[in-house]
Write a structure and sequence with these properties.
By secondary structure, the chain is an alpha/beta fold. 40% of the residues lie in helices and 24% in strands. It folds into two domains: 118 residues, 3-Layer(aba) Sandwich (Rossmann fold); 163 residues, Dihydrodipicolinate Reductase, domain 2, CATH 3.30.360. The strands form three sheets. It has an eight-stranded mixed beta sheet with strand order 7-8-9-6-10-11-12-13. Strands 3-4-5 form a three-stranded parallel beta sheet, sandwiched between helices. A hairpin with a 4-residue loop joins β8 and β9. The chain is globular. It starts with 5 loop residues before the first helix and ends with a helix.
Length: 319
C-alpha cells in the first residue's frame, strides 16, 4: 500500500483488510505518523517512506508483492503509478485515471505492455444496492435512459491541480456508462462558471450505441451534497441515492418498493455499502485469475475520453 491519507484510511485500508484471501504486507507514506497509524490499525508488518519519496521503489523491489495499491492526489502520484507499471506490478489507484487524456492513455499503454491487472476506484458502479436496482431493471429489458445527479455546496473557487471534472464528474460519467452499457457515440454538453473563475456546473447528454441515453447534471453551487441516479427500462423506474435509499416503481405502481443501502449490502460499514469492498474484491480476483476488473484502465480510459470531450466542447463554446 502506498499512501495512508484520509481517503485511504477511510475506505481502502479497511476494505483490503477485510479480505481473507489477501494480506497487506507493507505500507509506504512519507508521513511517518500516518505509516505508524495504518500499521497499528491493520497489523501491517513493514513500514517504508521515512527515507524519502522514492522509498516505495525499495519496498516493491524488496518485497515483490502480487499487487500494489496507490492512493493519493493524482498530480503527486503519476510518477509512482508509471514506475509501478513499468516495473511489472499489478496496480489499483484512486480516481481519476490521471489528469489528462495523454496521461491516462500512457498508463493504459504501460499496463497493456506488461499484461497487468489494473483497477481505478470508480466504486459507484459497485454499490450493492444500485447494482441490485440495475439488475431489476434489466430483467424487464434494456436501459432506455438513465440520469446521474451530483450536487455539492462548494461555492469557493476550485484552484488546485485538478478541476471539478476530474475530481467529481468522472464519477458521474463512469456511473452512467455502467448503467447504460454500450459505447458512447454522441455528446451534447453545457458548462458554466457560477460565481467562480472555474467551471462548476457541468451537464451533458450521452447517446449510446445500444440506443440508451444518459443525462448528467453536476453542480457545485447547489444547496447540499447528493449523488443519485435514475434508471428506466420498459415498465420500470428506479430512483437511488447511493449512500442512502432506493425506490423501485413498476407498471404504474405509485407506492413503490424501498431499499436501504446498508440492508442490501448486509453491512453498516461505509466501505461496504458504498461499493468500495466490492471494487477491492474485483481487483483481488483479477490478480488471482488474470481477468481484468470492471474498472480496469482499458475501460476507465473511456470515461476520461468523455470527460475531455465535454471540456473541449466548453472550450469551443467560450466557457
Amino acid at each position: 500500500m502506498i499512501g495512508a491519507g484520509d481517503r485511504a484510511m477511510q475506505v481502502i485500508y479497511p476494505a483490503m483488510a477485510a479480505q481473507k484471501d489477501a494480506e497487506i504486507i507493507a505500507v509506504c507514506d512519507i508521513d511517518t505518523q500516518r505509516n505508524a497509524k495504518a500499521a497499528e490499525l491493520y497489523n501491517i508488518p513493514r513500514q517504508y517512506g521515512s527515507k524519502g519519496v522514492n522509498e516505495y521503489k525499495d519496498m516493491l523491489e524488496e518485497l515483490k508483492p502480487d499487487a500494489v495499491v496507490v492512493v493519493g492526489q493524482p498530480h503527486l502520484m503519476y510518477d509512482i503509478w508509471e514506475w509501478t507499471l513499468k516495473n511489472g506490478f499489478n496496480l489499483m489507484i484512486e480516481k481519476p485515471l490521471a489528469l489528462s487524456i495523454h496521461q491516462a492513455k500512457m498508463l493504459t499503454w504501460h499496463a497493456e505492455q506488461k499484461n497487468l491487472i489494473t483497477q481505478v476506484a470508480f466504486h459507484r458502479r459497485y454499490t450493492p444496492m444500485v447494482v441490485k436496482m440495475r439488475e431489476e431493471c434489466l430483467k424487464r429489458g434494456p436501459i432506455t435512459h438513465a440520469v446521474c445527479r451530483f450536487y455539492k455546496y462548494a461555492t469557493e473557487p476550485f484552484t488546485g491541480a485538478r478541476d471539478h471534472m476530474m475530481d467529481d464528474t468522472v464519477h458521474s460519467i463512469d456511473t452512467l456508462r455502467w448503467i447504460c452499457g454500450g459505447e458512447v457515440t454522441g455528446i451534447e454538453s453545457h458548462c458554466k462558471r457560477v460565481g467562480v473563475p472555474d467551471i462548476n456546473y457541468i451537464s451533458a447528454t450521452l447517446q449510446f450505441d445500444n440506443g440508451s441515453t444518459g443525462y448528467l447534471i453536476n453542480s457545485w453551487s447547489s444547496g447540499k451534497r447528493v449523488f443519485e441516479v435514475e434508471m428506466h427500462a420498459p415498465g420500470i423506474y428506479v430512483s437511488a441515492e447511493h449512500e442512502n435509499k432506493a425506490q423501485l416503481f413498476a407498471e404504474g405502481d405509485l407506492t413503490g418498493v424501498e431499499y436501504d443501502a446498508k440492508e442490501v449490502a448486509g453491512s453498516n460499514e461505509f466501505f461496504a455499502y458504498t461499493g468500495v469492498e466490492a471494487l477491492v474484491k474485483d481487483f483481488i480476483n483479477g490478480v488471482k485469475t488474470g481477468k481484468q476488473p470492471q474498472a480496469c484502465f482499458q475501460n476507465s480510459v473511456k470515461t476520461m475520453e468523455i470527460a475531455e470531450k465535454i471540456l473541449a466542447q466548453a472550450l469551443f463554446a467560450g466557457v
